[in-house]
Design goal:
This protein has 413 residues and is mainly beta. The protein is built from two helices and 27 strands. Strands 2, 4, 5, 6, 9, 10, 12, 16 and 17 form a nine-stranded mixed β-sheet that branches. Strands 11, 13, 18, 19, 21, 24 and 25 form a seven-stranded mixed β-sheet that branches. A hairpin with a 2-residue loop joins strand 26 (360-368) and strand 27 (371-380). It is a lipid-anchor; GPI-anchor.
Amino acid sequence: MYHPACWIVFTATTALLFIPGVPVRSGDATFPKAMDNVTVRQGESATLRCTVDDRVTRVAWLNRSTILYAGNDKWSIDNRVVILSNTKTQYSIKIHNVDVYDEGPYTCSVQTDNHPKTSRVHLIVQVPPQIVNISSDITVNEGSSVTLMCLAFGRPEPTVTWRHLSGKGEGFWGATRDGCGVLPEGGLHRSSCCGGTAWQWDGGRQGCGGLFVGLVWGLSGVQHRRARCWTRWVTVPRVYPRLPGQGFVSEDEYLEITGITREQSGEYECSAVNDVAVPDVRKVKVTVNYPPYISNAKNTGASVGQKGILQCEASAVPVAEFQWFKEDTRLANGLEGVRIESKGRLSTLTFFNVSEKDYGNYTCVATNKLGNTNASIILYGPGAVHDGGNAASRVATGLCLWAALLARLLLDF
């Protein structure tokens, strides 16, 4: 008869000779019989069962070369490992609160008729996706290049996708390894589509375009569909979606934007998905600085003795500071019956009691650290000839008049 300690050492040594997940067949091909591979999520419990019969004289469970249980005797110092059953038909253990380091081969070893036999089962531990490192919020100047990083961990390895939350719809500007990147106008350059599926977002403005690509159109609101993509390549090519006139690359964990524009500012959402649990989602805010641009500056009419207000609206990041001039003289707040108020992107010049000397041309100047711009605004009285627009509209009107006059001369000629 074998000494128990000698048998255990022999069994442990024998167990190292076999390939994980493949039952060992010695004599009776169906005995002992372990389970198929066991898959559990991190934090759950895993039950390992081994089917035996009354020929068995000794049994043991091992993890690689470590003995967990020999019969009813516990050899492992891990409190999470407990025995469930040790009967004539089944020998099973349970591992509570399973973690990643528990993954691997487990061996059921039995002694029968003085011949050791073993069978193996492989424990697979799934881990929900978790973003472990992501770029901090960033502020850059327009035209700069930006690289956003989003590193994620999980089992299976999660797929990382970037999405720009533009405020005008959920535009999908990212890419995945088995999908297609899409552009706001619905197209891709030729090498950018891979075999797989691309989601179409943002009311149908997104599509999957390029060679051998199925197009999907006619969406509205926040509806979405899927577009199939085909490719000639045997291996899956990388995905390189690009924005119109700009570079825009999403490759796994990194999102690269070259020549960033003000329209590309906002929040960027990184999602890590592996279907084990709900996706892990984090956001990065990208602020794009740009020089002032006066978007609204209209001429205004007011009668003598009445109240008159000139308005100047400028877009800029950082917010612009305003100054008002009449001819070459800078106006001061509270002097000569005028008040200057600037809040956010809007500045107003108020005349509480308009007089003849107040009529004329005023200049609004908007300035921030990246530059400045100005616009001329006219305060006029009753009966004055004016176009009611701003400097840009007056230039456009003048060009139209010259074009009309030139066309008339050509016709007469």
